[in-house]
Amino acid sequence: MDFKALLATSKTIAVVGMSNRPDRPSFEVASVLQKGGYRIIPVNPQYAGTLILGEPCVASLADIKEPVDIVDCFRRSEDMPGVAVDAAAMSPLPKVLWMQSGVANDDAAKIARDVGMDVVQNKCLETTFLSLR
Fold this sequence. Notes:
Blueprint: H1 3-9, E1 12-16, H2 25-35, E2 39-43, E3 51-52, E4 55-56, E5 70-73, H3 80-88, E6 96-99, H4 106-114, E7 118-120, H5 125-131
Parallel strand pairs: 1-2, 1-5, 5-6, 6-7
Antiparallel strand pairs: 3-4
């Protein structure tokens, strides 16, 4: 996958499992990406209706009413098939289902690939973004 092209053509990133706590990896990654010019959409039912990094948090991917380029996932590997199903149901379809460092699930990857999404597993989006600047 051409990460440079992906990041150059992406504008909006849904961050699934985002925390409102600055000491959590999801918050740090989203903050760096937001400062890098991306629109962040926090996704976490625990914080739905609140603001995280100045953006309204939604409960699920189904609640997002605008195009999303990357679905960045901070969930346990075993939870990923459900996230992949939700991402696959989005319209328009996101470009990629991105599973953060330590997160990998081949069933989820197959679900996403079967509908035409690219998949990244066990890789930090922040690290990839910073390495290409």
